Amino acid sequence: MLYLDTSVLLVYTLTQSIEIERFKITDELFTKIISGEVSAATSFYALHQLYIFALENAPDLETGYAFGKNALLKVLSTPVHILPLVTRTERKNLGEKFVGLRDPSDVPHAIVALNSGCDAIVAYDEHFRAISHVIPYKKPEDYVL
User: Fold this and answer.
1) Do 35 and 93 meet the contact criterion of CB atoms below 8 Å apart?
2) d(Cα 120, Cα 108) in Å, to the nearest integer?
């Protein structure tokens, strides 16, 4: 099972018109997920980040609510497994494994992916390479090209 980081969900739902090439690849990955060829998961944390991105980047709050809701519905309508948030105990016990991760806001993604037995973190955030010795980092391209 692959863990889908927020950066992949963003391309699939909200930034597709800006990131056209990435969207084509990410859409192909989701086609494989929907067909059952690839198993994938994400977390409540990633869904929260997706929603917040919509709110922060919309021209007004009402539009942000609508964009965010539509983005969540698009992800939730796929067979992507939704994993729970990281517990305090998990963060305490596993957080040390990810001290090399430049963006501390990505530590919960790594903990959830590792704790759930995911085969890799799939993201467009290159800084996940720093923890690839703990859990492999891949891009959507690695599964569709």
Assistant:
1) no
2) 14
| Band (83; pLDDT cuts 50, 70, 90) | very high
36: left (phi over 0), alpha (psi -120 to 50) or beta: left
Would you list the DSSP string of the chain?
-EEE-HHHHHHHHTSTTTSHHHHHHHHHHHHHHHHTSS-EEEEHHHHHHHHHHHHHHSSSHHHHHHHHHHHHHHHHTSS-EEEPPPPHHHHHHHGGGGTT-S-GGGHHHHHHHHHTT-SEEE-S-GGGGGGTTTS-EE-THHHH-
pTM of the model: 0.94
Backbone angles phi, psi at 81, to 5 degrees: -70, 140
CATH number of 2-144: 3.40.50.1010
Structure tokens at 120: 């890799």
